[in-house]
Amino acid sequence: MKTTLKLSFITLLSASIFACAEDTPEPIVPLEAILVEDLAAPNDVINRNTGEVTEVRPFQFFSLEENALVEETEDWDLAFKGTTIRVNATKNVTAAVVTGIFDEIAEVPTSATFATDSGESFAIPTGSGNGWYNYNSATFTVTPIPGRVLLVKTTHGNYAKIEILSYYKGNPPAAEIDPMSTPSAHYTFRYILQPNGTTTF
Q: Is 60 exceeded by the pLDDT of residue 14?
């Protein structure tokens, strides 16, 4: 009888410990920002006198899931050339441009309007002041608009938030950019990808 009581007590204690272990929530591991530096995506060469394109240069295709440049035939999310950023419409990639502080955007805003590329219409608008950058015609420089964040739904259906930090090689301070000698179309940006399909970062 004593043995039976002892075993029952041990069984009850084990079940209690197991139940507590099951109720303990998994620790939340914060997502870390990935830094991409000097992604070179030069624009077409244009004759400044005639406006004619003398050399067509390719887009550079980037996978947010792989954090790497990939071939056009692979699962790319974004394609860069000059100041233009395309999304992979054939794989249902969509994007939205929102205003906010990168570090403070903890979730995809319900107000964000996602779109994909269609013909000459881009999900990430082109032109100074329209999307991610401003062009200063006095200094001939391109600078990211402070507080502009790109949201992207990837080929795998996961969400990412992106902040473009620089358009010039080496990410120089704006005051040190010489449009005649500082190589442009070298993107430095950071992004956070939520790999589990949820809208939180």
A: no
Taking a C-beta distance cutoff of 8 angstroms, is the pair 115, 124 a contact?
Answer: no
Torsion sign (Cα): 163, 191, 200, 112: positive
Give the whole-angstrom CA distance, residue 200 versus residue 109: 10
Domain boundaries, the chain: 30-194
Is residue 178 scored above 80 in pLDDT? yes
Cβ atoms 68, 95 nearer than 8 A: no
Q: Which two tokens stand for residue 76?
A: 């790319």
DSSP letters for 1-67? -HHHHHHHHHHHHHHHHHHHHHHSPPPPPPPPPEEEEEEE-PPPEE-TTT--EEE----EEEETTTT
Side-chain half-sphere CA neighbours of 99 within 13 A: 3
Report residue 57: phi and psi, to 5°. -110, 150
**DSSP annotation string for 83-121:** TEEEE-GGGT-EEEEEES-GGG--B--TT---B--BTTB
* Cα–Cα distance, 169 to 56 (Å, whole number): 21
